[in-house]
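=== RUN LOG ===
request id: a7f3
mode: sequence -> structure
chains: 1
length: 739
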Amino acid sequence: MTFQIKAIFSRRGFVALTATLVLILMTGLRIANPDFLVAVRELTFDYYQRFQPRDYQPAPVRIVDIDEASISDIGQWPWPRTKIAELVDVLMELGAATVVFDVIFPEPDRTSPAQIQAFLPAGTPDHVIKSLQDLPDNDESLAETIASYPVVLGFAITDKSTGRVPIKKTGMAYGGADPVSILPPFPAAVPSLDILQESASGVGSISVSQDDRDGVIRRVPLIMSDGTSVYPGLASEALRVAQGASGLIVRTTSASGEIDSGTPAITDLKIGAFTVPTTATGEIWVYYTPDRPDRYIQSKELFARDKHADLAPLIEGHIVLVGTSAAGLRDIRATALGDLVPGVSVHAQALEQMINGQFLNRPDWAEGLETLTTILTGSLFILILPVVGSLGTALIGVAVTTVLIGGSFYLFLEQGLLIDPIYPSLAAFMVFAAATAMLYFLTEREKRFVRQAFSQYLSPDLVTQLEKTPDQLTLGGEIRPMTILFMDIRGFTPISEQLTPTELVAFLNTLLSPLSDAIQAEGGTIDKYIGDSIMAFWNAPLAVPDHAGKACRASLAMFKIVEDLNARDAFGFKARDLKAQTVKIGIGLNSGDACVGNMGSERRFNYSVIGDAVNVASRIESSCKAVGAELLVSEETRAQAPELAYLEAGEIPLKGKSEPVRLYALIGDETYAASEDYRKLARIHDSLTSAVKSGETGSSATELAAARKLAPALSTFFDRFEDQIINTNAPQTENSATS
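=== RESULT ===
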């Protein structure tokens, strides 16, 4: 049993297990097919088209463009329906096979006599009203014209109910499953006026399949459903009417002779003499050519009789789509080539493909093939990695990816097939990466064990150094100049009494984490956390130039962090209306020689610092409250970082020291030290100090008020002057700081 367990969890077993789990995950992700995978796949197909656009082959398809110039000449859109009727008459006179409108006429013509009559002011003469009533209705005139020719009108899909439905002009037959059960139902439609639809030879949807992710038109619906009936798209209806066919034949995967993947899907559409492969939901993938000027005729030219002779060869026998490129009419679309084209151009290109047989096809079995390829490539990597190693597997992976992408692009060029090579390649890479990472993990686990074990109490820099030179993991130390910091939370006992143990730990973590980050950001090393205190030092284990200055700047940053945490009520004291509303800290800094190194026993030791300089730093921190300053530094620290802003804070006696230690309150950085406010404050402070020492405090009250005005935050620091001004002979305790 023990042998079996060891075999299963051997290095090779762990690697294979990890790779297999990743392969299962990647296969499941491919089956789920989330939107971001669809986006990557379709972007891949876009680049195929950009690299090799469809070769343009002239087809009997033409666009009559309602462009800016035509609107400028003829008038504001929408034009009167009589003008539209005239346009249809001209196109049919020039020999158009079919006139197809990529526009909708959903409302009565505002220029019709009946519409004008409704806006006439009261008191309009009867003969004027009668004259309008005798005039023919514009919509009826257009309906009569449409009824005389093979004309296709459009309707648009919308998500808001209009209470109207398109009129079906197309017969629908199907082989296999009923398309209504396959097609996603559209919620509502905006059709043209019933009088116009009834007169038309065909009615089709002008809506295209815009991708919500990036707005690119990649597919055009050839059929669609409202959940009850099946309607044609504009391109398929145009092709049907142009041939004089009565209906469309839809074939699905359950039809005889079709490969059935288990999920009903539409495979193709028969339109008269043409068979068009479709997506599972009845769309055609648009295979674009760059937009061409020779597809277009300006609509204004059709109203110029002298140009008809030149236009006749361009229109005769053609399916003519009427649409707009005018920016103000908002029918500009993005294509897979990255171009912006009029929406009518998308329908025209779909028609060209159907007529010339130039199709892109993503068959129903493509999903299954891609999933199978994902499994096979991933399995190949799992099998060969232990045999040929990481480098050999990587080289084989490059070859496999090249074959997949090359094969996919070949199928695109030769067969118009859209097969995704990216995801199987990505899945194989992820399997390889996971297996290699696990192999690295197992090979380097001893080194990681050292890092994980010692990083709990050593600085990151020291851990890195120990990884490179493990022989340093011995007892011993060295004397070097250092700066030591002690930080303590003021009033910690009252705070802790208001909190539960869990809340107290959360409070300490919230405070100490950013304070520690500030220390490490300036190159400091955290020695230890002592309850509510931090001990840190600079210039070990690695040399830190300007260690005193960096320690001072880290300390100033720590006070800003505490100020910000209090302002945001990060501890929740104000929100809970606790007695302690804010948190305060005190910091003491000292610079001097100290012994630093690995200290402890042979089995358990810690990298720390000891010495007289450390004791002085601790004593300085404990003197903050007596002095009335939040941040005190020794004279040695001030001498090594003279560019900052300080005020003398007196002296403190130390046990075992014959001379007291002179202290300075650190109150700002270099910018503040260079300011006029600081210079004034320093002059006043020096004057107050001299006055107290000499006992001549006659004008000191005025200077004290000025000092407090310049630095309100130091009010407590200046309190000691107030006491001494009142009674310069007041006795001093042994432990009090004296000026």
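=== NOTES ===
Residues 1-9, 729-739 have pLDDT under 50 and may be disordered.
The longest strand covers residues 584-600.
=== END ===
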